[in-house]
C-alpha cells in the first residue's frame, strides 16, 4: 500500500513527542511492507518526498492508496483533500485522519475562541469525507463522534518502543543513584499551560518538611526552566534533551510522574507514560481518563491522585521509597504491560488492521460510484 502522510513534520533529534510518534508510525508502516510518501518537511530516510505545487501536489497524491492526515489543534490544508472536488482531483484514495488532541487545545496557545470555532467548522465540513478517524484515546474518539460528526472511529493509544526504552540501558553519567534514594522524573515544559508543574513544587515542599528530601530526588527534563527558582533543593532541572537520549535518562529513574491540569489534556494519550512504563518505572499520575484506564489494567489505581493533591503525591512517593518491595512490584508490572500491550508496533498494526478492512470494503464497490463515504458506516472502536 502506498501511504501519503500529510502534516507530519518529522525532524531527527527533535525533543517533541509528536516527532517521535511520526517517526514510529513511518518505521512500523514500512516494516509492515507499506511505502510512505510525504511532503519535504518530513525528514525521515524511509520516506519518499513528493513535489509541492498547485498542480504538482495533487498529481503526486494520485499515486497513493491512502491519504493519512495527522491533526492537532488547528486546520491543515491536507484536510481539504478529504471531500468534494479536491478529493476527486487526487483519485479518491481512502482518507484517514489521526486526531491527537481537541481544537480547544489552541486556547492554551493563546488563540482566540474564534480560531477554535473555525477549526471545528472545517473539521465538520471536510470530515464528511473522512473514512476513518484514528483517535489516541477513547475520550477523544467520543468527542470526534459527538462534536464533529465523524462516526467511524478507531481508538489507538500511543505507545513506546520497549526494545529502546529498557531498564538496562546505560544511564546518563551525570545522573547520580544513591543507596536508599529514589529518582523521580517529570518530562514536560513548564510553559505549556496543561502541564501542572505547581503540584510537583508543592509536593517537594511537603517531602522536605517531612524529612525525606535526601531520599526523594526530583528531576525535570524539558525545554523551559520557568518556575525553577521557587523549587526546593531536591528538585533538579536537567534541561531539554533530544528524544533519542531519553532511554538513558529514564533507565536511571525509579518513578515517573504524569501531571496535567484538567481540560484538553483529558483527551490526550501521554507519550511520557508509555516511555516510563517501558523503562520499568513505577508511575504516579493525576486523574486523567486514559491513565486511569491503564492504571486499572495494572491494578495500581492507588497511585492516582486528584489534580490539586500535592500532599497525596508526596505521600505516594514516600510510600514508594519506604517500601522497596512495593516499588519493585510496580516497576516490574509497568515493564510487562508496555511489552505486552503498549508498543508502537501494536499501535501501527491495530491501525492497519482497520485500514485493511476498509480497503477490502472499498474493493467490493467502485469508489467513484459510492454515494456515501465510509465515515457514514457504523463506528468501530478498539479498546
Short structural description:
By secondary structure, this protein is α/β, with parallel strands linked by helices.
- The end-to-end distance, rounded to whole angstroms, is 25 Å
Sheet with most strands: strand arrangement: 3-2-1-4-5-6-7
Largest sheet entry: 7 strands, parallel
Series of secondary-structure elements, N-terminal to C-terminal: EHEEHEHEHEHEEHEEHEHEHEHHH
Which structural class do the helices and strands define? alpha/beta
Number of helices: 12
CATH superfamily of the largest domain: Glycogen Phosphorylase B
What is the CATH-assigned architecture of the largest domain?
3-Layer(aba) Sandwich
- Quickly name the level 1 CATH class of the largest domain: Alpha Beta
Q: What percent of the residues sit in helical stretches (DSSP H or I)?
A: 25-40%
Comma- or semicolon-separated keywords:
383 residues, alpha/beta, Rossmann fold, 2 domains, 12 helices, 13 strands, 15% strand
What layout of secondary structure does this protein have?
Blueprint: E1 2-6, H1 17-31, E2 35-38, E3 47-49, H2 56-61, E4 66-71, H3 85-89, E5 94-99, H4 113-126, E6 132-135, H5 138-148, E7 153-155, E8 182-187, H6 197-209, E9 216-221, E10 235-239, H7 246-250, E11 255-258, H8 271-278, E12 282-286, H9 289-298, E13 304-305, H10 310-322, H11 324-341, H12 344-363
Parallel strand pairs: 1-2, 1-4, 2-3, 4-5, 5-6, 6-7, 8-9, 8-11, 9-10, 11-12, 12-13
Describe the structure.
By secondary structure, the chain is of the alpha/beta class. It folds into two domains: 2-159 and 344-376, Glycogen Phosphorylase B (Rossmann fold, 3-Layer(aba) Sandwich), CATH 3.40.50; 182-341, 3-Layer(aba) Sandwich (Rossmann fold). The protein contains twelve helices and 13 strands. It has helices spanning 17-31, 56-61, 85-89, 113-126, 138-148, 197-209, 246-250, 271-278, 289-298, 310-322, 324-341, 344-363, and strands at residues 2-6, 35-38, 47-49, 66-71, 94-99, 132-135, 153-155, 182-187, 216-221, 235-239, 255-258, 282-286, 304-305. The chain has a seven-stranded parallel β-sheet, with helices on both faces. The chain has a six-stranded parallel β-sheet with strand order 10-9-8-11-12-13, sandwiched between helices. Helix 1 (17-31) links the parallel strand 1 (2-6) and strand 2.
